[in-house]
Amino acid sequence: MKVARAYTKRPNVIVFSGAFHGRTLLTTHMTAKKANSVGLGPFPDGIFRVDYPNLYRKPAYYTDEEAVAYYIERIKRAFDELTPASQVAAIVFEPVQGEGGFIPAPIEWVKAVRQICDENGIMMMTDEVQTGFGRTGKLFASSYYEEAGCAPDILCTAKSIAGGFPLSAIVARDEIVKGIGGGLIGGTFGGNSVSCAAALATIQVIEDENLCERSLELGAAYTARVEEWQQQYKEIGDVRGLGGMIGIEFIKDRLTKEPAPELVNALIQHCVQNGLIIENAGTYGNVVRFLAPLVMTDEQLEAGLAIFENAIDALCTKLA
Question: From the record, what ranges are coiled-coil (predicted)?
Answer without folding.
Answer: none
